[in-house]
Amino acid sequence: MGKYEVLFFDADGTLYDFEQTEKYALRKTFKDFLLSYNEEKLLPVFKKVNLAIWKEFERNEITAEKLKAERFRRFFNEIKITGINERDFGLKYLENLSENNELLSGAKELIEELH
């Protein structure tokens, strides 16, 4: 078998624990907007809304730019939150999402071994 010069990995769910990152980002964004956050109640609603809108994106029914605000418009509608700018909330969520970089168990060792 030949030697590979380059290997590509999808980061989310392969190297990084996206589940934990998503929880962190949503919790922190609610805090940043001074909103009460109950993960047990809100996270499942967010996941449902987020999954549905990403499926729309995959079918080219919504653009990436519109998705950023629309997922939070729909989420806020589901949980009855008003008076929050969905676009601002979405941008802050993405910022918070980029802050947390918890690796999956064994990811660091895998990359070190491959290096």
Describe the model.
- The chain is about 65% helix and about 0% strand.
- It contains five helices and no strands.
- Helix 2 (about 40-60) packs antiparallel against helix 3 (about 65-80) and helix 3 crosses helix 4 (about 85-100).
Question: How does the SSE layout of this entry go?
Answer:
Layout: H1 18-32, H2 39-58, H3 64-79, H4 86-99, H5 107-114
Helix pairs in contact: 1-4, 2-3, 3-4
- Number of DSSP helices? 5
Order of helices and strands: HHHHH
Shape: globular
Estimate the helix proportion, in percent. Answer: 55-70%
Helix/strand/pairing category: mainly alpha
Rg over C-alpha atoms, rounded to the nearest angstrom: 17 Å
Average pLDDT metric: 89
- Major sheet size, sense and barrel closure: none
Strand content: under 5%
Distance between the termini: 18 Å
Low confidence ranges: none
Number of strands: 0
Explain briefly what this protein structure is.
The protein is mainly alpha-helical and about 120 residues long. The chain contains 5 helices and no strands. Helices cover about 65% and strands about 0% of the residues.
Features:
mainly alpha, about 120 residues, single chain, about 0% strand
